[in-house]
Amino acid sequence: MSRITRVGRSALVALCLFTPGLASGQAVQDPPKPFEPVSGQAGKDVVWVPTPQSTVDAMLDLAKLTPSDHLIDLGAGNGITVITAAKRGATAVGVEFNPDMVALARGKAQEAGVSGRATFVQGDLFEADLSKATVITLFLLPEINMKLRPSLLDLKPGTRVVANSFDMEDWEPDVRVTVPECTSWCTAMAWIVPAKVTGAWQLGKEMLTLTQRFQFVGGTLGAAGITDGRLSGAALTFTAGGRTYTGRVEGDRLVGDGWSATRLP
C-alpha cells in the first residue's frame, strides 16, 4: 500500500510541475465555448430571431436577385440572408452591431465557400452606407423600418427593398407573399424605390401636374384628370384623356413612346 501511495504522490508532483495552474493551486479552466446565438437575445435595436431559410429564399425571389446585384442586409444576425445571396452569385454585405454575431457569420460564410462575395461589417445599421445597394433586406421591427424609410426612399429609383414580416406602414409593398410550408415569420414583402415626380411638367402644349404618394401618382394633364398612375422605380404609367402614357423618368425629363415632358422650375 505504501508503494502505491509513493507512486501517486510522485505523479501529482510531476503534474504540478508541468501544469502552472495546478502548481499555484488554481483549477484548470475549460476552453471557452463557441458563441451560439439564442432566439430572442437582446441587441442594440431589436432582439435577434432567426429567419427561416424558406423565408430568405422567398425574399430573394421577390427581389429578383441576380449575380449583378449588390445586396445589403441591415441587422445581418447569423448571416443567413447574406450567405444565401452570395450563393446565388450576388455581392452581399451584412451590417451587424454584435461583434460575436459578425464573427459567427464570417465563419459560416467561410464554411459555405462564399467569403469572397459575402462580407460582414460590425456597425450601426442607421449609419451604414447604402449608396451601392441595388437590394436591401430587412428583418426589423416596424418602428425601425420607419426610421430607415426616409433614407430608403432617397435611394436610386429601382432599388429593391425586401422585408420579413414587418411593413412600412402607409408605404404599401408592391408585392407581398406568404411562404408555403412555413411555421413562423412567413411573410415576405418587397418595395421598389420610386422616382420623384411631384410637380409641374410641360408635355407638348399642355401642362402636366403630378402628385405622388410613394409609388402611386395622380394629377392632371391639361383639363383631364389622371387615373391609374403608378411608378415602378423610374418606370411611369398613367391614363389621361382616354390615352395611356408609359415612359421613364430620366432626371428632369419624362420620356415615352411618342411623347416626352420636361420638368418646370
How would you sum up this structure, described in words?
By secondary structure, the chain is α+β, with helices and mostly antiparallel strands. It has two domains: 53-192, Rossmann fold (3-Layer(aba) Sandwich); 199-263, no CATH class. Helix content is 25%, strand content 32%. The protein contains six helices and 16 strands. It has helices spanning 2-18, 20-23, 53-62, 80-87, 99-112, 142-153, and strands at residues 70-74, 91-96, 118-122, 135-138, 160-164, 175-178, 187-192, 199-203, 206-213, 216-221, 224-225, 227-232, 235-240, 243-250, 253-256, 259-263. The strands form two sheets. Strands 8-9-10-12-13-14-15-16 form an eight-stranded antiparallel β-barrel. Strands 3-2-1-4-5-7-6 form a seven-stranded mixed beta sheet, with helices on one face. Strand 13 (235-240) and strand 14 form a beta hairpin. Helix 3 (53-62) crosses helix 4. The longest helix is centred in the N-terminal third of the chain and has 17 residues, at 2-18.
Beta-strand residue fraction: 25-35%
What is the CATH top level name of the largest domain? Answer: Alpha Beta
Strand order of the largest sheet: 8-9-10-12-13-14-15-16
- CATH superfamily caption of the largest domain: Vaccinia Virus protein VP39
> Per the principal axes of the C-alpha atoms, what is the gross shape?
elongated
User: Per CATH, which architecture of the largest domain?
Assistant: 3-Layer(aba) Sandwich
N-to-C span: 105 Å
**How many β strands by DSSP?**
16
CATH names the topology of the largest domain as: Rossmann fold
Order of helices and strands: HHHEHEHEEHEEEEEEEEEEEE
Mean pLDDT: 89
| Major sheet characteristics | 8 strands, antiparallel, barrel
Rg estimate, integer Å? 28 Å
Number of helices: 6
Give the fraction of residues assigned to helices.
Answer: 10-25%
Structural class: alpha+beta
Total of domains: 2
Low-confidence stretches: 1-25
